[in-house]
Write a structure and sequence with these properties.
heterodimer; A: mainly alpha; MetI-like fold; 15 helices; globular; disordered N terminus; B: alpha+beta; D-Maltodextrin-Binding Protein, domain 2; Dipeptide-binding Protein, domain 3; 2 domains; eleven-stranded mixed beta sheet; 33% helix
């Protein structure tokens, strides 16, 4: 298999060792498989919690001194801050507190915003889901559609053009593309008018009702375009290469021999089989959706989780970084696990392997 | 063929319609309404003035709340705000302010009790100290009687009239028990300044409305919006397009990108910031024990002076700051503060003179080795210094390149050390793990705070903690002058003392001032019709102290026929129609596709 981007492979490998079940396509086997995967995921999450605690304590810089940046704080005030943040306790006690709080979903209070991290994340979740989710759907649809057509007629002009274009966009730095789009379609250059807003998710004086949806839609165009442009290549290439593998298979020849139209051979026979690696890839990408798109959100001042993470790093706001970091890792783990299970359920070959 | 045509036509309609949408959506505020939109590249950290520390937040609070005094628009000297007059006892320890009869935006009278409550809250509640704790450290007691506010000090303090604490309405705030966790997101806010906050969408915008009860009279504009951009380039794009009307705090490249825009006034005046080098001249803690790992040669004032002679400040300004700064022949107070600014003249002036720098080092016994690098007189160490700068700051990178070149001329090697901001603050302000570091300070109309950053007491304590020094400086003369200026209530006399302090810093060179950066801003001339900077004569707009520019600003009223208010239904209708057409267009597009699909199946 010539997976152009390595992202498609781990799930297949990970699915391997657990596939000891019988060949029969029983729901029972899938359940057992799913449970074992869930166990693994829980273990990973536990490790993430432990890891997060220590990684963030190893980071350079004393958070309290950092708070005092540019301000005149007496040592007594610093001590008070330390006490307030629980940093004056022994490391082991801090660890126990941290694990307990995390299990209660208490991610602490942001140094900078002085509000619970979970609240901050909650506020940002919607916008991120809207932007990154829409971007994912469009990128996947576009990638699968172009990948299928390109793979089915390998070497055609469409193949060369779409593969070439997607790879060029894949290689373009997101930041540069985003700013370019902003300059051209946001501000307007020459005959091109500045159609789209330059920032945010909505206008300051946003209208109500349907017009509001349209307003948000207008704000989404450029960030979404940037987001899609730089990532759709991976879906296209995975789809294209897995379709190429199917093209030479006997069953495709059989379908053709039956006299089916070319389109139908593709849609009914080849594509469903070729879709599997793409499905895995999509699931893993969903995990990253909650992380938002840091760069895109930053360019377009999109009030999502990516922007929050960026702000946290810029300050730096340790509790906020810690919280968003955990959120992203945990969601990736969960989605990975789901991908394994779905793959197992979708593809009988994995079960029998 | 026909199918293709139908598809194309449908797509064409959809695209066309989508293209029309923004025209229909452009939010024209209600006819005749005057709205100013200010861009900011920093989001508000808190709307609670007791907690907010970011510049953008304190700026917004300056527009919302009254203070005891504000800098005068002409002279920057303290002038009446909520305090209409004041007296001082002969010993300088008791200050009595007469609070003017004004109203809070909810109609309640402003009394001395509000001011007393605000100061006492900060003095007694640790959480309330977050933003302005040090300001009240010297307060013994604050009491109110009617409109008279009496502040008793522990020791005299000439900077009393540059008090940065906004006066809060007691009747609204006294019920707040947990100050540390109070976000103050209640709108409209009750305040006594020119504007009232009416809405805050986190990390998106703050909307302020003119305060009709404001004692100086209602501002000329109706609404002031502060709109946040994460990315400075996007904010510049927003200004060029007209999504925002004004933006401040630009750096030279950003400023140059708006200079040729016919719709934009590129605002370039003297700024409030001094940029300097901080030199580790033997850092110590407050009990005079050495701390850190500074190069021993920098303890020698001759070496520091030689470094000073080796720097071509003109060239740095021209090539690092693109000419948008003033080379420093003074110290830590920039020339815009005319009263307090000091500049070296005559023999004292250290100009660019590498020959003289070499001469000084030769005479002091720092001999050049075969590699051209000098060594200390005892021959133990080469003059190899580290230069600490921040990561991701192109201007500091460039500065480092130039300094490395200048110092090479005098046999001194400079290597650049990049640190993220928290590590930088720690190493250059507390642990003293540096030789030379970039530094700077934005000075207030009363320079007391920046002067205090070079006091002995600001060094970290014996445990190597706390402080707030900008130089680890501890000098008897400087210390004495500082105490004298604190007690000196006669402004010209105080200015003389402050100038002497700067002279001391200049000649002893624990810090070497490089340049004073200009205040760079931009605003749309098709929107803003008048705005008074502070100071009035070529002063600042956004970065200025006090609310003057944003109180006096006037903008073009939006034209009739716009939306907002009663016009809203109109836009709604247009948008609805447009949206409907988009949906129909898309439906048509997909239907033609579906039909083709069905046709395929049937074959």
């Amino acid at each position: 298999m010539t997976a152009p981007l390595d992202a498609a492979e781990p799930a297949v490998q990970a699915a391997g060792p657990a596939g000891r079940d019988e060949e029969r396509p029983s729901g029972h086997g899938t359940l057992r498989y799913a449970l074992s995967k869930a166990g693994g995921a829980l273990f990973s999450i536990a490790m993430v919690i432990v890891g997060t605690f220590f990684v963030f304590r190893l980071l350079p810089g004393d958070p309290v001194r950092n708070l005092a940046q540019g301000r005149n704080m007496t040592p007594a005030q610093l001590d008070l801050e330390r006490h307030r943040l629980g940093l004056d306790k022994p490391l082991i006690d801090q660890f126990v507190d941290f694990v307990g709080a995390t299990l209660r979903l208490d991610l602490g209070t942001s140094y900078e915003y002085k509000r619970p991290v979970l609240d901050l994340i909650g506020e940002r979740f919607g916008p991120t889901l809207l932007l990154a989710g829409t971007g994912l759907i469009i990128a996947v649809s576009l990638g699968i559609w172009q990948g299928t057509r390109a793979g089915w007629r390998r070497g055609s002009r469409f193949d060369r053009f779409s593969t070439g274009l997607s790879l060029v966009l894949w290689s373009v730095p997101t930041f540069w593309l985003g700013l370019l789009l902003l300059m051209v379609f946001g501000v307007g250059i020459g005959p091109i008018p500045g159609l789209f807003p330059t920032r945010g998710i909505e206008s300051v004086d946003a209208p109500d009702g349907f017009a509001y949806l349209l307003d948000v839609g207008m704000h989404m165009v450029l960030p979404c375009l940037t987001l899609v442009a730089v990532v759709y290549a991976q879906y296209l290439l995975v789809m294209r290469s897995s379709l190429l593998e199917e093209v030479g298979q006997d069953y495709v020849t059989t379908a053709r021999a039956k006299g089916l139209r070319d389109d139908e051979v593709r849609r009914r026979h080849a594509v469903p089989n070729a879709l599997l690696p793409t499905v895995t890839l999509v699931f893993m990408r969903i995990g990253f959706v909650v992380g938002g798109a840091v760069t895109v959100e930053t360019i377009y001042s999109w009030p999502g989780l990516g922007q929050l993470f960026y702000e946290a790093v810029r300050v730096p706001d340790f509790t906020l970084m810690q919280g968003t970091f955990m959120l992203i890792t945990v969601s990736v783990i969960i989605m990975n696990t789901l991908a394994d299970v779905v793959y197992h359920w979708l593809d009988p070959r994995v079960r029998s392997a | 063929m026909r199918k293709w045509f139908a598809r194309l036509a449908a797509l064409g309609i959809a695209v066309l319609v989508a293209g029309q949408a923004p025209a229909a959506l452009a939010q024209e505020p209600a006819a005749g309404k005057k709205v100013l939109r200010v861009g900011a590249t920093q989001a508000v950290d808190s709307m609670n003035p007791f907690l907010a520390v970011r510049v953008v937040s304190t700026q917004i609070h300056r527009w919302m709340y009254g203070f005891l005094t504000v800098p005068d628009v002409k002279t920057l000297q303290p002038s009446p705000d909520l305090a209409e007059s004041w007296t001082t006892s002969p010993d300088g320890l008791t200050w009595t302010f007469k609070i003017r009869s004004a109203k809070w935006s909810d109609g309640q009278p402003v009394t001395a009790d509000d001011a007393a409550w605000t100061f006492n809250k900060i003095m007694t509640d640790e959480a309330a100290k977050t933003a302005n704790g040090p300001v009240v450290e010297n307060f013994e007691s604050v009491t109110a009687s009617g409109q008279d506010l009496t502040i008793k000090l522990k020791s005299p303090q000439a900077s009393m009239l540059d008090n940065p604490i906004p006066i809060m309405p007691k009747h609204v705030w006294e019920s707040v028990t947990d100050m540390a966790n109070y976000d103050a997101e209640k709108y409209p806010t009750v305040s006594s300044g020119p504007y009232i906050a009416v809405e805050h969408k986190k990390d998106q915008y703050v909307k302020l409305q003119a305060n009709p009860n404001y004692w100086r009279g209602k501002p000329k504009i109706d609404e002031l919006q502060v709109i946040f951009y994460d990315n400075p380039q996007a904010a510049i794009a927003g200004l060029k397009k007209g999504d925002i009307d004004l933006i401040g705090r630009l750096n030279p490249p950003e400023f140059q990108s708006i200079q040729n825009d016919p719709n934009i006034v590129a605002w370039n005046t003297q700024g409030r910031r001094a940029a300097y080098l901080q030199i580790n001249h033997g850092a110590t803690t407050s009990d005079d024990k050495p701390i850190g790992d500074g190069h021993p040669a920098l303890k020698d004032p001759k070496v520091r002076q030689a470094l000073h002679y080796a720097i071509d400040k003109q060239k740095i300004v021209a090539e690092v700051q693109n000419g948008l700064a003033k080379p420093a022949d003074g110290s830590i107070i920039p020339p815009m503060f005319k009263d307090f600014f000091w500049e070296a003249t005559g023999d004292e002036k250290v100009g660019y003179d590498p020959a003289k720098a070499n001469q000084i080092l030769d005479d002091a016994g720092y001999k050049k080795g075969s590699d051209g690098v000098r060594t200390t007189p005892d021959g133990k160490r080469k003059l190899e210094f580290r230069f600490s700068i921040h990561t991701d700051t192109p201007i500091e990178d460039k500065l480092a390149e130039y300094l490395t070149g200048f110092f090479k001329e005098i046999g001194v090697t400079l290597t650049t050390k990049k640190l993220d901001s928290s590590k930088f603050t720690e190493e250059t302000g507390v642990t003293a793990l540096f030789d030379i570091a970039i530094s700077g300070w934005s000075v207030n109309p009363d320079p007391e705070e920046v002067l205090a950053t070079h006091l002995c007491s600001r060094r970290p304590n014996a445990a190597g903690e706390g402080g707030g020094t900008e130089s680890f400086y501890c000098n008897e003369t400087y210390e004495k002058l500082y105490q004298e200026q604190l007690k000196e209530l006669d402004r010209p006399k105080r200015a003389e003392l402050i100038k002497k302090m700067q002279e001391q810093l200049y000649t002893d060179a624990p810090v070497i001032a490089l340049y004073y950066t200009n205040d760079l801003e931009g605003y749309r001339k098709d929107r803003i019709t008048s705005i008074t900077p502070i100071p009035e004569d070529k002063g600042l707009l956004y970065g200025g102290s006090g609310y003057w520019p944003f109180y006096t600003v006037d903008v073009v009223a939006s034209s009739a026929g716009g939306s907002g208010g009663d016009g809203g239904s109109n836009t709604g209708l247009i948008a609805g129609v447009v949206g409907g057409v988009v949906v129909v267009g898309l439906a048509a597009f997909f239907l033609t596709r579906r039909r083709k699909g069905a046709a395929d199946e049937r074959e």
